[in-house]
UniProtKB/TrEMBL annotation:
Its EC number is 2.4.1.227. Residues 8-143 form the Glycosyltransferase family 28 N-terminal domain. InterPro entries: Glyco_trans_28_C (IPR007235), GlycoTrans_28_N (IPR004276). Keywords: Glycosyltransferase, Transferase. The keyword Transferase applies. Gene3D superfamilies: Glycogen Phosphorylase B. One of its GO terms (biological process) is carbohydrate derivative biosynthetic process. Pfam families: Glyco_tran_28_C, Glyco_transf_28. Residues 183-335 form the Glycosyl transferase family 28 C-terminal domain. This is UDP-N-acetylglucosamine--N-acetylmuramyl-(Pentapeptide) pyrophosphoryl-undecaprenol N-acetylglucosamine transferase. The keyword Transferase applies.
């Protein structure tokens, strides 16, 4: 029988893979997430565009961040986030909540627990994210990307499943290798102004030898798209086609660029680093320094140890240092792909969800 499932959290790429698979099984999916790229900006988020583009109803949640809260206004936003979460849950009456970490998941999962709605969560990183630690007492199961994460969570409810991978990334589609070789810059859903600032002066030199595809982000305050247009316009006419920029590349384009790139320059989020390992790609990683528990730095160091990545810390970022790091990364000699990367996470997770979607367990008394 069809059930109603709410998805929420901070890692929409992984979550959407699972949501779409459940939808094909006849379940009703509802999404609670970010409508805009960041606070104070009116640029529609990639999450909102991809989720609504899939035909999934989207509910925007406005709540405060729980990590290291000192601003009284942030506390007020947290309270409002809980009120909004209760309202969404009472109106949609979901049978299950599926979280993929991130601070949005906290009020939704806790409100669900108070309403006796079962919840599960997925941990993407090699550490334990703050949000997932906070909701651990309130979820039935915790799905982990990495075996090493087992020590961070209660053993009786933790399961190593790997990370859900976009099906198009696993398909054996053959793409034509770009000539000249491709450098792909992707820095998360919002892009990275600090990386863009160091990168823009290097574009004229890079396009002499490479094709450069650059995900700039779409923040209306920093206007990095406008800066990218000016950089492209300043290039010699015969080289302008070697520089392509967009605020965000959606799944089909992103997969093609990842698969055909000679080098990927990126932050070191869990999803990005997992896909880089899966595809055995050369990478230059610039971790976000302020994320909790230094999780991005740990992700980046893992790729460095495996010999597929160069790490450049943001505090050392400058056009000169970035150029040196790019040249070092381009010289990396790739070894055999990591054989322990799991690709069946979506099916594993859905198999664990079966008891909560079974009619005999869906009544409030059984939750």
């Amino acid at each position: 029988m069809s059930k109603t499932i709410i998805f929420t959290g901070g890692h929409h790429n992984s979550a959407l893979v699972v949501a779409q698979k459940l939808r094909t099984q006849g379940h009703k999916i509802i999404w609670v997430g970010h409508k805009f790229t960041m606070r104070g900006d009116k640029q529609i988020s990639a999450e909102y565009q991809e989720v609504t583009g899939s035909g999934i109803p989207f509910y925007e949640l406005k709540t405060g961040k729980f990590y290291r809260v000192t601003n009284p206004l942030e506390f007020l936003k947290i309270i409002l986030g809980f009120i909004q979460s209760f309202a969404y849950l009472l109106s949609t009456k979901p049978d299950l909540i599926v979280s993929f970490g991130g601070y949005l998941s906290v009020p939704v999962v806790i409100a669900g627990w108070l309403l006796r709605i079962p919840a599960v969560t997925h941990e993407q990183t090699v550490t334990a994210g703050w949000a997932n630690r906070a909701i651990t007492p309130f979820v039935k199961k915790i799905f982990l990307t990495h075996q090493s994460s087992l020590k961070n969570y209660p053993q009786h409810k933790s399961f190593v499943t790997g990370l859900p991978i976009r099906p198009s990334l696993l398909e054996q589609t053959t793409y034509k290798r770009p000539k000249p070789p491709l450098i792909y810059i992707t820095c998360g859903k919002q892009g990275s102004t600090v990386i863009n600032k160091a990168l823009f002066p290097l574009i004229p030199k890079l396009v002499e030898k490479y094709k450069v595809v650059h995900q700039t982000g779409a923040h209306t305050i920093t206007s990095d798209q406008d800066k990218a247009r000016r950089v492209k316009a300043s290039l010699p006419k015969n080289l302008r086609t070697r520089y392509k920029h967009q605020p965000y590349f959606f799944a089909q384009d992103a997969v093609r660029y990842l698969k055909t790139a000679h080098l990927v320059i990126a932050r070191a989020g869990a999803h990005t680093t997992y896909e880089l390992l899966l595809l055995n790609k050369r990478s230059l990683l610039i971790p976000i320094p302020w994320v909790s528990h230094h999780e991005q730095d740990k992700n980046a160091q893992l790729l460095k140890r495996l010999g597929t990545g160069i790490v450049l810390q943001e505090k050392d970022l400058s056009p000169d240092n970035l150029e040196v790091a790019i040249n070092q990364a381009l010289k990396l000699k790739l070894k055999k792909p990591v054989s322990t990367i799991r690709t069946d996470a979506t099916d594993q997770i859905i198999s664990h969800l079966a008891p909560y979607l079974n009619d005999s367990l869906s009544s409030p008394s059984s939750r």
